[in-house]
Amino acid sequence: MFLINLQSKEPIFEQIQTQILSFIEAGVLSPGDKLPSVRQLATENGINPNTVAKAYSLLEQKGYVYNLPKKGVYVADITVENSKMLQITALIKPLKESGITKDDLITAINKIYEEDANA
Q1: What are the φ and ψ backbone dihedral angles of 34, each rounded to 5 degrees?
Q2: Cα separation of 13 and 24, whole Å?
Q3: Can you give the three-state secondary structure of 38-99, one letter per residue?
Q4: Over the stretch 70-109, which tens digit does the pLDDT of each residue have?
Q5: 12-26 helix and 49-61 helix, angle to the nearest 10 degrees
Q6: Residues paired with residue 72 on neighbouring β-strands, in sequence order
Q7: What is the pTM of this model?
Q8: What is d(CA 43, CA 40) in angstroms, rounded to the nearest whole number?
Q9: What is the CA radius of gyration of the chain?
Q10: Closest CA relative to residue 12, chosen from 51, 46, 49, 41
Q11: Are 20 and 29 in contact (CB under 8 A)?
């Protein structure tokens, strides 16, 4: 199911995340579907279980999956509205952490939307 390129410059945990998100978008994985266990995915691909755990953890933080202790990791029910909010949050959080203020963001957003309206 997963194709991990060990020679890629993209970190393995990011490859796993990208593929899971692609499977969700394509409908291969649906809400409530169980993902392979950390151990299973690591063994099948010859990678460290900590790498798989990191990918799953980051997806869980972003709201794409949820973990049921001792049962596994499952695909979350992502609505279009929820998906938009997750994308916006993923973009804004790093900006906030780098010191960009809410006012800076609002100013930039207003400028971009004004440019679109004038085009």
Answers
A1: -85, 135
A2: 17
A3: HHHHHHHHCCCHHHHHHHHHHHHHCCCEEEECCCEEEECCCCHHHHHHHHHHHHHHHHHHCC
A4: 999 999 987 666 767 777 877 888 889 899 999 999 999 9
A5: 50
A6: 68
A7: 0.70
A8: 5
A9: 18
A10: 51
A11: yes
